Inverse folding.
């Protein structure tokens, strides 16, 4: 990585996004770069409040349209208060999820039109997209088992999407792969099976072969 940029880590639940955020942050900081690690929904007090609302409880707690608007509201605050100021001062940003997740979860998962999601993003967020999105690709059945075990062990009430069936999560995985296929210059797809060391090695290899934001 040879300059400040905006990097998003995406994938199905349980694919190892949080650990990969830490790996990229350490890599960038090791090269003398100021780095902001953040997440969605979240990243700001407003976003964290929305996170508590939208990731907990039963699946029928929100209409899909309400869910989309809440996710977008959290992103407006995230971009305005965290991402844009960091990039403006020359810092890098590494985010655990971004709008790619909204396209996958509320779009492919919930059946909402992708054009609606992209248009809303353009009009109210400001059409801010990552320089590079790393998609950690994993069989959703494996990811769900990991995620449910983690939530149970930590007693975190953020399992609303984990209650949904395997078909929902398979649609999400396919959406991420489709996004990468449509915009290969801004996406890399990495096999997220195996140990964390295995996955980090694959990511390092993939980054070494990219151009532009990644050297």
């Amino acid at each position: 990585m040879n300059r400040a940029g905006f990097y998003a880590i995406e994938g199905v639940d349980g694919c190892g996004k949080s650990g990969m955020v830490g790996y990229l942050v350490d890599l960038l900081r090791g090269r003398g770069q100021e780095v902001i690690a953040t997440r969605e929904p979240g990243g700001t007090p407003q976003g964290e409040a929305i996170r508590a609302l939208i990731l907990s409880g039963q699946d029928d707690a929100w209409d899909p349209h309400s869910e989309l608007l809440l996710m977008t509201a959290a992103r407006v605050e995230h971009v305005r208060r965290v991402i844009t100021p960091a990039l403006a001062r020359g810092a890098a940003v590494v985010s655990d999820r971004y709008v790619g997740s909204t396209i996958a979860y509320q779009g492919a998962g919930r059946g909402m039109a992708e054009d609606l999601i992209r248009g809303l993003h353009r009009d109210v967020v400001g059409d801010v997209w990552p320089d590079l999105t790393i998609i950690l690709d994993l069989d959703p059945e494996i990811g769900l088992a990991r995620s449910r075990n983690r939530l149970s062990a930590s007693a975190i009430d953020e399992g609303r999407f984990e209650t949904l069936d395997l078909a929902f999560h398979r649609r999400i995985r396919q959406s991420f792969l489709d996004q990468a296929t449509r915009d290969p210059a801004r996406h890399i797809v990495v096999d997220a099976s195996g140990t964390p060391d295995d996955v980090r090695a694959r990511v390092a290899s993939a980054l070494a072969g990219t151009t532009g934001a990644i050297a």
Observations:
- The chain has one domain: 6-208.
